[in-house]
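Glycosyltransferase 2-like domain-containing protein: structure, please.
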Amino acid sequence: MQTEVSSPIPRLIHQTWKTRDVPPEFLALQRSWTGRNPGFAYRFWTDEDIGRFVAEEHPALLPVFQGYADPIARIDLARYLILRRFGGVYADLDLECLRPVDGLLESRSFLVGQEPEEHGRLAKAAERGLPRILCPSFLASVPGHPFWDHLLSRLVEARHCPDVLDATGPFLLTRAHATYEGEGRVTVLAPERLYPVTKDDCWSGRLFDPVFWEQATREAYAVHRWEGTWFRGAAERGAGPGAELPRQIAAVVTDGRSEGDRPTVAPSSVAAEGPPLISCLMVTRGRSGLLRFAIEGFARQTYPNRELVVVCDSPALPQDDPLERAIHDAACPNIRLIRVETGGLTLGDLRNIAVDRADGRYVCQWDDDDLYDPCRLEMQQRVLAATASQACLLGRWMIWWPVENRLAVSCERDWEGSLLCEKAAMPRYPALRHGEDTPVVEQLRRSARVVRMDLPRLYIYVVHGGNTFTAPHFEAHWQAAAARFDGGRCRALLEEMGKRLPVEPYRRVVVSPSPVPAAAARQESVLVLTPVKDAVAHLPRYLELLGRLDHDPSRLSLGFLEGDSRDGTHDWLAGWLPELRQRYRRVTLLRHDHGFRPDGPRWAPAIQRRRREVLARVRNRLLSGALGDEDWVLWLDADLVDYPRDLLARLLAAGRDIVVSHCVLPDGRTFDLNSFRLDGPVAREEDPRHLVDGIFQPPRGAGRRYLDDFPGEEAVPLHGVGGTALLVRADLHREGLCFPPYSHRGYIETEGLAAMAGDMGVSAWGLPGLRVVHADH
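Here you go.
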């Protein structure tokens, strides 16, 4: 009867290689063992270490060890002897640890894993009639386990076997276990624990399929890459999915050309001509912190003959321009930057400029906020050439919501953003601000030979809050997705994809963006807008605080709208206009009365609908009358009594399209309850019982969390914002973002602005640590 040995398996990991120079393709896999098992000691053995160990510890076995013609046989013997002497865990370098192995070792004295059942049907295994195969790539045991002596005796008997699989490898291990009758128990783990994928899955490229990888590894502690360094040459392994087209790629070709337009001879092969030049076309405003990932993604492409044409419709910053810095840091010579001085051009217009300036035989859309696998160009070009097509599109791609920790494989359709096309066949883009690429693909379907390929990991479309399309658009794609991942499985799949893509650095920028350099922030032109009513008592302090901001006053414009005042606010401001216009870039003073003078406190629920409706109309009228060519709009209350000199710099440095500070009373209590985040999951709705006059007015804290609930956090996503110190990218206002004076999904005025922004695909953010102080009245 077999029993467990009482002592635990030592928390010690052993790995081996010829020298200490581990091949680059194994470094991440090697780190997975120490990273996933921080409480374990680690010992690395070179061939020299192993030779010395066998000579000193097992001199009787030295003739057997030295007699092996194949070096892998000596490594097989060494791993058995090392574990017999020291115990612990042995793992091949091409085995990746996916989770801590403590759970496997608990209450066990010897562990070995079974290879996938498919391996038993391969020729060599079938010839030997082995019902299952045990694999020595992962072994764990206590020192001196009885099985080792049994195995070594069988190994000595088999030392003259010509095939290493029979002499020292899996077949020997399997046969030894079948005849073992010792007292120490040997636990055999099912394939899904250590060997969830087959050799063919790895070698065919199937492991590159995200859905297959996620399903295969759900119960796995490790995954074996089956690199086969002892029998496969470097040309056969380590090249990744770009080495050849994975067999699982599905490609569908449609030909919209008339019979007369179709060529009568096959196109010359790429091998004969050499790879044609591909021009990747990127249109950008040049300010996003994400564009560097798109530029770096181009620089890492495996396709050799390429260029990146960057069309930017914003002037360069005098110092530390983020676009020019990203291009410089990429250290890639084949990048051209074209700045377009003409204002008011649509996205379609800018894409046409990029096409016109491209030198390549092919053009490829290359958006400035997405992630691209290093073999994207190579794989799309291979499919294009193999099918003699003029255009190639992805039929599915990945969609990632970093803030919400969601990842999806999209539904099947033509993903316009993935277009790779012959320049000669490329239609013109229509003059649209968004959706401009859909008509182009529709025209290509009617006029060209188009191939749609299915390899979703080539492209990750990121939903980061500043996309062209709205949040409902992306929610619809989530619901229609071919596969959806959230929580722990999303993190696992992102970690797998992170071996080839900068997933984690990208996530950090979206969730906690890097600060904009102070010099760059001071160059942004900002319009400060303030509605005023009976504000004479507050305006001297307002102008004092504004005057000490550490932002270049020549880059600041001011706008005021006065209405319904009884204390001479308009005349007071009019008297200051000459002085203000000397200091600031531009100053606008407007006046409009709405006749709203309620009795009682302004926070009474009965008047909220009317009060905030009027305030929304005031803000919208002020915006339309004062907005010029500024980059940003800062909505600033007149009755703030204090805020830091770097208020504007910190709001700009947050790197968000909509961001609000934390407004408090002089005693430190949170004042602005319009800045909130719904409690619980992102999709959670307000309690309909709190709907009063068509707008949500819950008691404080009912289903909502305010900025004082997030101490220590740099930035948090919000579902509603207040307007005491609110920064909005001016282009959002130009594109229709306003303060709804009506109930927009139960929200009005500033809260309605945040809801409307969400519908536009833009997230609002709050900075809990950036405090502004409001008068207590």
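Notes: The first strand starts at residue 12 and ends at 16.
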